[in-house]
Design brief:
There is one protein chain. This protein is mainly alpha-helical and 496 residues long. The protein has one domain (17-220, 235-495): MFS general substrate transporter like domains (Growth Hormone, Chain: A). Helix content is 72%, strand content 2%. The chain contains 17 helices and 4 strands. The protein has a two-stranded antiparallel ribbon with strand order 1-4. A two-stranded antiparallel sheet has the order 2-3. Strand 2 and strand 3 (425-426) form a beta hairpin. The relative contact order is 0.16.
Length: 496
């Protein structure tokens, strides 16, 4: 047997320099996700005011989170364990599949059959939600994992995180501003068929955004998992244990849960507040869009401020600012004067400023948490770490509206009206009293305050990757990866 040693290294792939094209592509990914996800805030109104589910919706929303408990970590583990070689990248391939399903997935949650029997409504809701959630997870979990692979540079990751926030914000703003003018009737009541058509249109727009992202994304840190007979097989329970011992991941996840409890829980109450308190459903989107101005203002500054102060430090300050804004929302003038709307808008601006500071670095913090997992355990589990993070975010997105609706029911939101066309029970917002409107207005302030406090706890007290520790981690990971490359044996070609 003749042995031929080939020590020539394989040619290194050359990628284009990181720049604005990468940022816009990554922003388009979250824009695509939110074209579908932004309608979730309308779901509670649709299923209570159109489908007449009243408080049944709260129970169903919590039940479908059981699917999330299986769905998110399962898909994350499938992505991590997938060793197939795809034309671009396995993450991009999964995103492509998810984008196809989301074209109709979102609309499945808004099938307008108010005259159907209760058992049929249960099936329609659960089946529609499961279909939508499955495709959303297939696209969203790999998408979140991509951030740590597009670039290893902390400043680049901060830029990607900031631009992801921009994509998320635009994806929320478009439906937020446009939909109220489409889905509401002149008397401030919801139109079910218009909601369904809008969901289909959002799915198509999301698909277009995903295709732009896929074609313009470059993977520069494609860490391949080398397998051999001695390597232990993937264990999802071990991965979950690692996640719970990953302080940055747990802290960032708690902060994200807090953010979504406020955003999703309050969104349901806010919509009703504009229906019955401010008596103008159409301006609700404009007011909420106006509150996002601070996020736009801060985004261009994120990269420089991260380099100077650090992600954890900035995000903690943002949580404090949000607490101040939330406290201001408790100021309510008697009899709903024009001054009350002005105070509401100004306090929303302050709250959103803090949220903007946090949200522009939140995804970069999760990218660092993925690196932390590798630093502490020696295993790089992008899919599982991100999918568990995504699961708890989704849990908050379910708990927030469910708890808000239960509280709203106790405050008088459920009035057992009957639809004159279908003769089915529904909720008529025009029959709600002004006392109920004031109570719901106060509930919005409570939900935003709880949201900001949870963000502070997660970021200031649990997340432990301050600027100094992050620098140490990155240096040690570079050395570790460099040693691994140098110590790897030269490739051998054996010929008989």
């Amino acid at each position: 047997m003749e042995q031929n040693l080939n020590t020539a290294p394989a040619p290194e792939k050359k990628h284009r320099k990181f720049g604005m094209r990468d940022c816009l592509a990554y922003a388009a990914g979250d824009l695509g996700c939110n074209m579908s996800f932004a309608l979730k805030g309308t779901m509670a109104l649709f299923w209570t005011q159109i489908m007449g589910m009243e408080l049944w919706y709260s129970l169903l929303l919590i039940i479908v989170q059981v699917w999330d408990a299986i769905n998110d970590p399962l898909i994350g583990s499938i992505v991590d364990a997938d060793q197939h070689k795809y034309k671009r990248n396995k993450f991009l391939q999964y995103i492509w599949v998810g984008s196809i399903g989301l074209i109709v997935g979102g609309a499945c949650c808004f099938l307008p059959f108010p005259g159907a029997p209760v058992w049929a409504k249960f099936i329609i809701f659960i089946a529609g939600y499961v279909i939508w959630d499955a495709f959303y997870t297939i696209a969203n979990v790999p998408y979140g994992s991509l951030l740590s692979l597009i670039s290893a540079d902390p400043a680049d990751r901060a830029s990607l995180s900031a631009w992801r926030s921009v994509g998320s914000m635009v994806g929320n703003m478009l439906p937020m501003v446009i939909l109220p003018f489409i889905i509401y009737n002149k008397d401030n009541t919801l139109n079910g068929m218009r909601v369904f058509i809008a969901a289909l249109l959002m799915g198509v727009l999301g698909f277009i955004c995903f295709q732009f992202m896929i074609k313009n994304t470059v993977i520069r840190e494609d860490v391949e998992v080398k397998t051999n007979e001695d390597q232990p097989k993937f264990n999802v329970f071990e991965a979950m244990k690692n996640f719970l011992h990953n302080r940055p991941a747990v802290g960032a996840t708690l902060a994200a849960m807090g953010m979504f409890i406020g955003m999703q829980g309050a969104a349901t109450a806010v919509s009703v507040v504009f229906q019955i308190y401010f008596k103008n459903s159409q301006i609700s989107g404009i007011v909420q869009m106006f509150a996002m101005i601070p996020i736009l203002v801060f985004t261009p500054l994120a990269r420089k401020m991260v380099v100077k102060y650090g992600k954890k430090e900035l995000a903690t300050v943002g949580a404090i600012v949000s607490i101040i804004g939330a406290l201001g929302l408790f100021i309510i003038t008697p009899q709903n004067t024009g001054l009350d709307l002005l105070i509401y808008i100004l306090c929303q601006l302050v709250y959103s400023l803090g949220l903007g500071i946090y949200s522009t670095v939140s995804w970069a913090m999760m990218g660092d948490a993925i690196d932390y997992n590798e630093w502490k355990t020696g295993k790089r589990e992008e899919g599982v770490v991100y999918s568990l993070h995504s699961f708890f975010r989704k849990l908050a997105q379910g708990i927030g509206p469910a708890v808000a609706l239960l509280i709203m029911g106790g405050l008088g939101y459920v009035n057992n009206a009957v639809d004159p066309v279908t003769n089915q029970p529904c909720i008529d917002v025009n029959l709600l009293s002004f006392d109920v409107a004031i109570s719901l207005r106060t509930l919005v302030a409570v939900l935003f305050l709880v949201s900001a406090v949870l963000q502070f706890i997660g970021l200031a007290l649990i997340y432990n990757l301050d600027k100094k520790t992050l620098g140490q981690m990155n240096e040690e990971l570079k050395l570790k990866r460099g040693e691994t490359a140098e110590e790897a044996p030269a490739a051998e070609v054996i010929a008989e």
